[in-house]
Write a structure and sequence with these properties.
It comes from Qipengyuania polymorpha. This is YdcF family protein. This protein has 6 helices and 7 strands. By secondary structure, it is of the alpha/beta class. The chain has a 5-stranded parallel sheet with strand order 5-4-1-6-7, sandwiched between helices. A two-stranded antiparallel ribbon has the order 2-3. β2 and β3 form a beta hairpin.
Length: 190
Amino acid sequence: MKALRLLLLLAALWLAGIAIWIATVPEENDGASADVALVLGAAVDSDTPSPVFAARLDHAIALYKEGRVAKLMLTGGRSDEYSLSEAAAGREYAIARGVAADDILIDENSRTTRQNLLEAQRVMKGEGVETALVVSDPLHLRRAMQMAQSLGLEAQPSATPHTRYRSWQTKVPFLLREVYFVHHSWLFDQ
């Protein structure tokens, strides 16, 4: 019985440590620049970016307008219920906010964070683009950056300054989801 309690305590400490590690968000270089802002997809609502995706797009657009990136790399496929992919909806959103259509690269095939990064890497390589600022929610960046590094992407993190996950009621479920997916990524390289 003592061994089981010790095992449970160690597991709880491990999970708490991982949650704290995720919540501390990767360190950013505030003046960092790159060839693209690589925006990780986050769903659409009736063919328009969801509030979470819109926050990511707004941050990428700000990086573009500040001259910290030359282009946007938008990722995300299409679910069966919508006519536009996440990337296509994001493209329309960015163009409506002043981003030149020629400065937007898209991947419409990916459905997961790893796929977002793999497909973005493929598109970037085809366009001769080498460096990226990975744009996502703060709690998502640990996993996204680990994946980007494992794929050999020359990338730096750039967390959205405004996130939909502000209260404990929204942060805790998202953090628990990330704790699960970090372990899933480590175990299955997905």
